Amino acid sequence: MCMSSITTGNEKQYRDSQKLAARARLNSKYTIAEIGWFPWVARQLPLKAGNRILDVGCGPSWFWAATAHELPEKLELTLSDLSRGMLEEAVERCRPLPFGAVIGQQADATALPFEEGSFDAAIAMHMLYHLAEPTKGIAEMYRVLKPGGFLAVTTNGIGNMRKIYELTTALGSPPFDPAGAAFGYDAAERFMQAQFGNVTMTEHPARLRVTEPEDVFLALTSYPPGDEANDAQLAVFKDVIAAAFQAGNGMLEVEKESGLFISRKTA
User: Fold this and answer.
1) Residue 8, SS3?
2) 3-class secondary structure, 33
3) pLDDT one-digit tens code per residue, 195-219
4) What is the pLDDT of residues 95-152, one digit of tens each?
5) Cα(87)–Cα(107) distance, rounded to whole angstroms?
6) First-to-last CA distance in the chain?
7) Which domains can be identified in the chain, with CATH numbers?
Protein backbone atom coordinates (compact mmCIF):
# COMPACT_ATOMS: atom_id res chain seq x y z
CA MET A 1 0.00 0.00 0.00
CA CYS A 2 1.50 3.35 -0.93
CA MET A 3 1.96 5.70 1.98
CA SER A 4 0.00 8.93 2.03
CA SER A 5 -1.61 11.21 4.59
CA ILE A 6 -4.14 13.91 5.34
CA THR A 7 -1.76 16.38 3.71
CA THR A 8 -2.17 14.93 0.21
CA GLY A 9 -5.06 14.14 -2.13
CA ASN A 10 -6.86 17.32 -1.13
CA GLU A 11 -9.50 17.15 -3.87
CA LYS A 12 -10.74 13.77 -2.65
CA GLN A 13 -10.19 14.51 1.04
CA TYR A 14 -11.99 17.84 1.13
CA ARG A 15 -14.71 17.58 -1.49
CA ASP A 16 -17.01 17.98 1.51
CA SER A 17 -16.63 17.83 5.30
CA GLN A 18 -17.38 14.11 5.79
CA LYS A 19 -13.80 12.85 6.17
CA LEU A 20 -12.74 15.89 8.16
CA ALA A 21 -15.67 15.35 10.53
CA ALA A 22 -14.42 11.88 11.46
CA ARG A 23 -11.15 13.40 12.70
CA ALA A 24 -12.79 16.41 14.29
CA ARG A 25 -15.13 14.14 16.25
CA LEU A 26 -12.18 12.59 18.06
CA ASN A 27 -11.06 16.00 19.29
CA SER A 28 -14.48 17.47 20.06
CA LYS A 29 -15.70 14.40 21.92
CA TYR A 30 -12.66 13.56 24.04
CA THR A 31 -10.62 16.72 24.60
CA ILE A 32 -10.06 17.68 28.23
CA ALA A 33 -9.34 21.40 28.62
CA GLU A 34 -10.42 24.34 30.75
CA ILE A 35 -11.67 26.03 27.59
CA GLY A 36 -12.45 24.42 24.25
CA TRP A 37 -10.25 24.93 21.22
CA PHE A 38 -12.55 27.24 19.21
CA PRO A 39 -13.45 29.64 22.04
CA TRP A 40 -9.80 29.62 23.14
CA VAL A 41 -8.66 30.71 19.68
CA ALA A 42 -11.42 33.33 19.47
CA ARG A 43 -10.27 34.94 22.73
CA GLN A 44 -6.69 35.21 21.45
CA LEU A 45 -7.58 37.04 18.22
CA PRO A 46 -7.13 40.85 18.45
CA LEU A 47 -10.29 41.58 16.46
CA LYS A 48 -12.26 44.82 16.57
CA ALA A 49 -15.86 45.58 15.64
CA GLY A 50 -16.30 45.99 11.90
CA ASN A 51 -12.99 44.36 10.95
CA ARG A 52 -12.72 42.81 7.48
CA ILE A 53 -11.54 39.22 7.90
CA LEU A 54 -10.31 36.72 5.32
CA ASP A 55 -10.51 33.05 6.31
CA VAL A 56 -8.16 31.16 3.98
CA GLY A 57 -8.98 27.47 3.65
CA CYS A 58 -12.12 28.02 5.67
CA GLY A 59 -13.35 24.42 5.38
CA PRO A 60 -16.89 24.02 6.75
CA SER A 61 -16.49 27.07 9.06
CA TRP A 62 -17.13 25.22 12.29
CA PHE A 63 -14.96 27.82 14.02
CA TRP A 64 -17.17 30.78 13.09
CA ALA A 65 -20.35 28.89 13.94
CA ALA A 66 -18.97 28.03 17.39
CA THR A 67 -17.73 31.53 18.23
CA ALA A 68 -19.92 34.02 16.32
CA HIS A 69 -21.72 35.18 19.47
CA GLU A 70 -18.44 35.76 21.35
CA LEU A 71 -16.77 37.93 18.69
CA PRO A 72 -16.89 41.70 18.16
CA GLU A 73 -19.91 43.07 16.31
CA LYS A 74 -20.36 43.61 12.56
CA LEU A 75 -17.34 41.63 11.40
CA GLU A 76 -17.18 41.41 7.60
CA LEU A 77 -16.23 37.81 6.87
CA THR A 78 -14.82 36.59 3.56
CA LEU A 79 -14.65 32.80 3.41
CA SER A 80 -12.30 31.23 0.88
CA ASP A 81 -11.49 27.63 0.06
CA LEU A 82 -10.24 25.68 -2.94
CA SER A 83 -13.08 23.19 -2.47
CA ARG A 84 -16.41 24.43 -3.80
CA GLY A 85 -18.26 21.89 -1.64
CA MET A 86 -16.56 23.10 1.53
CA LEU A 87 -17.13 26.74 0.58
CA GLU A 88 -20.84 26.27 -0.08
CA GLU A 89 -21.26 24.52 3.26
CA ALA A 90 -19.32 27.28 5.03
CA VAL A 91 -21.36 30.12 3.51
CA GLU A 92 -24.63 28.34 4.25
CA ARG A 93 -23.54 27.84 7.86
CA CYS A 94 -22.35 31.43 8.40
CA ARG A 95 -24.97 33.48 6.55
CA PRO A 96 -27.57 33.22 9.37
CA LEU A 97 -25.00 34.18 12.02
CA PRO A 98 -24.60 37.72 13.42
CA PHE A 99 -21.89 38.97 11.08
CA GLY A 100 -21.93 42.29 9.28
CA ALA A 101 -21.38 40.46 6.00
CA VAL A 102 -20.54 36.95 4.79
CA ILE A 103 -18.94 36.51 1.35
CA GLY A 104 -17.75 33.26 -0.25
CA GLN A 105 -14.89 33.10 -2.76
CA GLN A 106 -13.38 29.95 -4.21
CA ALA A 107 -9.64 30.56 -4.19
CA ASP A 108 -6.18 29.05 -4.25
CA ALA A 109 -4.35 30.10 -1.07
CA THR A 110 -1.17 30.74 -3.08
CA ALA A 111 -2.91 33.11 -5.54
CA LEU A 112 -5.60 34.99 -3.64
CA PRO A 113 -7.99 36.99 -5.88
CA PHE A 114 -8.02 40.07 -3.64
CA GLU A 115 -6.43 43.50 -3.83
CA GLU A 116 -3.40 44.39 -1.76
CA GLY A 117 -4.31 45.80 1.66
CA SER A 118 -7.93 44.57 1.62
CA PHE A 119 -8.27 42.99 5.07
CA ASP A 120 -7.72 43.79 8.74
CA ALA A 121 -7.09 40.13 9.55
CA ALA A 122 -6.30 36.88 7.76
CA ILE A 123 -6.97 33.53 9.42
CA ALA A 124 -5.50 30.19 8.33
CA MET A 125 -6.60 27.43 10.69
CA HIS A 126 -4.95 24.04 10.31
CA MET A 127 -4.56 24.36 6.55
CA LEU A 128 -1.04 25.50 5.61
CA TYR A 129 0.21 21.91 5.75
CA HIS A 130 -1.90 21.25 2.65
CA LEU A 131 0.21 23.63 0.55
CA ALA A 132 3.25 22.39 -1.33
CA GLU A 133 4.83 25.79 -0.67
CA PRO A 134 3.30 27.29 2.50
CA THR A 135 5.59 30.32 2.21
CA LYS A 136 3.61 31.34 -0.89
CA GLY A 137 0.37 31.19 1.08
CA ILE A 138 1.87 33.28 3.89
CA ALA A 139 3.20 35.82 1.38
CA GLU A 140 -0.23 36.10 -0.24
CA MET A 141 -1.94 36.65 3.10
CA TYR A 142 0.66 39.28 3.97
CA ARG A 143 -0.07 41.02 0.64
CA VAL A 144 -3.82 41.27 1.16
CA LEU A 145 -3.50 42.55 4.75
CA LYS A 146 -3.77 46.24 5.51
CA PRO A 147 -0.76 47.83 7.26
CA GLY A 148 -1.31 47.07 10.94
CA GLY A 149 -3.40 44.00 10.11
CA PHE A 150 -2.57 40.57 11.48
CA LEU A 151 -2.29 36.97 10.32
CA ALA A 152 -3.40 34.18 12.68
CA VAL A 153 -2.28 30.63 11.89
CA THR A 154 -3.09 27.45 13.80
CA THR A 155 -1.27 24.15 13.44
CA ASN A 156 -0.11 21.11 15.38
CA GLY A 157 3.25 20.20 16.85
CA ILE A 158 5.07 17.06 15.75
CA GLY A 159 4.26 15.42 19.10
CA ASN A 160 0.51 15.98 18.81
CA MET A 161 -1.51 12.88 19.76
CA ARG A 162 1.59 10.71 19.34
CA LYS A 163 0.09 7.67 21.11
CA ILE A 164 -2.72 7.63 18.57
CA TYR A 165 -0.58 8.24 15.49
CA GLU A 166 1.83 5.51 16.58
CA LEU A 167 -1.01 3.07 15.91
CA THR A 168 -1.01 4.00 12.20
CA THR A 169 2.35 2.26 11.71
CA ALA A 170 0.20 -0.88 11.30
CA LEU A 171 -1.06 0.72 8.05
CA GLY A 172 2.37 1.84 6.89
CA SER A 173 2.24 5.43 8.15
CA PRO A 174 4.94 7.15 10.24
CA PRO A 175 4.32 7.27 14.02
CA PHE A 176 3.46 10.97 14.24
CA ASP A 177 0.92 13.60 13.24
CA PRO A 178 1.28 14.09 9.45
CA ALA A 179 0.09 17.70 9.75
CA GLY A 180 2.67 18.50 12.43
CA ALA A 181 5.36 16.91 10.27
CA ALA A 182 4.40 18.87 7.14
CA PHE A 183 3.88 22.29 8.75
CA GLY A 184 4.43 22.19 12.50
CA TYR A 185 5.47 24.65 15.17
CA ASP A 186 8.98 25.20 13.84
CA ALA A 187 7.84 25.90 10.29
CA ALA A 188 5.07 28.27 11.41
CA GLU A 189 7.42 30.30 13.56
CA ARG A 190 10.23 30.39 11.00
CA PHE A 191 8.13 31.24 7.93
CA MET A 192 5.93 33.84 9.64
CA GLN A 193 8.94 35.51 11.24
CA ALA A 194 10.67 35.65 7.85
CA GLN A 195 7.65 37.29 6.17
CA PHE A 196 6.42 39.63 8.91
CA GLY A 197 9.49 40.21 11.08
CA ASN A 198 7.49 39.24 14.18
CA VAL A 199 5.50 36.28 15.52
CA THR A 200 4.03 35.23 18.86
CA MET A 201 2.99 31.68 19.70
CA THR A 202 0.54 30.36 22.30
CA GLU A 203 -0.27 26.68 22.91
CA HIS A 204 -3.71 25.46 23.88
CA PRO A 205 -3.39 23.41 27.08
CA ALA A 206 -5.34 20.21 26.40
CA ARG A 207 -5.20 16.43 26.24
CA LEU A 208 -7.44 13.60 25.07
CA ARG A 209 -9.00 10.82 27.10
CA VAL A 210 -10.50 8.48 24.51
CA THR A 211 -12.86 5.73 25.66
CA GLU A 212 -14.25 4.35 22.36
CA PRO A 213 -11.89 2.38 20.08
CA GLU A 214 -14.30 2.80 17.15
CA ASP A 215 -13.82 6.58 17.17
CA VAL A 216 -10.06 6.12 16.86
CA PHE A 217 -10.59 3.66 14.02
CA LEU A 218 -12.92 6.01 12.12
CA ALA A 219 -10.56 8.98 12.53
CA LEU A 220 -7.45 7.12 11.39
CA THR A 221 -9.18 5.48 8.41
CA SER A 222 -10.63 8.77 7.14
CA TYR A 223 -7.46 9.55 5.15
CA PRO A 224 -4.81 7.57 3.23
CA PRO A 225 -3.59 4.96 3.64
CA GLY A 226 -6.39 3.95 6.03
CA ASP A 227 -9.23 4.85 3.69
CA GLU A 228 -7.64 2.69 0.97
CA ALA A 229 -6.93 -0.37 3.14
CA ASN A 230 -8.50 -3.74 2.36
CA ASP A 231 -10.62 -5.76 4.78
CA ALA A 232 -7.70 -7.87 6.03
CA GLN A 233 -5.58 -4.79 6.73
CA LEU A 234 -8.47 -3.09 8.52
CA ALA A 235 -9.07 -6.17 10.67
CA VAL A 236 -5.41 -6.14 11.76
CA PHE A 237 -5.65 -2.41 12.45
CA LYS A 238 -8.73 -2.90 14.64
CA ASP A 239 -6.80 -5.50 16.64
CA VAL A 240 -3.91 -3.06 17.12
CA ILE A 241 -6.30 -0.38 18.41
CA ALA A 242 -8.06 -2.87 20.71
CA ALA A 243 -4.71 -3.92 22.19
CA ALA A 244 -3.80 -0.28 22.89
CA PHE A 245 -7.07 0.25 24.76
CA GLN A 246 -6.60 -2.99 26.68
CA ALA A 247 -3.13 -1.83 27.73
CA GLY A 248 -4.66 1.47 28.87
CA ASN A 249 -7.38 -0.22 30.94
CA GLY A 250 -10.09 0.72 28.49
CA MET A 251 -8.91 4.18 27.48
CA LEU A 252 -6.20 6.12 25.70
CA GLU A 253 -4.68 9.13 27.48
CA VAL A 254 -3.08 11.30 24.82
CA GLU A 255 -1.21 14.62 24.97
CA LYS A 256 -2.15 17.29 22.44
CA GLU A 257 0.00 19.95 20.78
CA SER A 258 -2.05 22.62 19.02
CA GLY A 259 -0.86 26.21 18.82
CA LEU A 260 -1.80 29.66 17.57
CA PHE A 261 0.74 31.90 15.82
CA ILE A 262 0.05 35.61 15.26
CA SER A 263 2.09 38.04 13.15
CA ARG A 264 1.28 41.68 12.47
CA LYS A 265 2.01 43.61 9.26
CA THR A 266 4.06 46.65 10.15
CA ALA A 267 2.11 49.87 9.73
Assistant:
1) coil
2) coil
3) 999 999 999 999 999 999 999 999 9
4) 999 999 999 999 999 999 999 999 999 999 999 999 999 999 999 999 999 999 999 9
5) 10
6) 51
7) 10-264 (3.40.50.150)
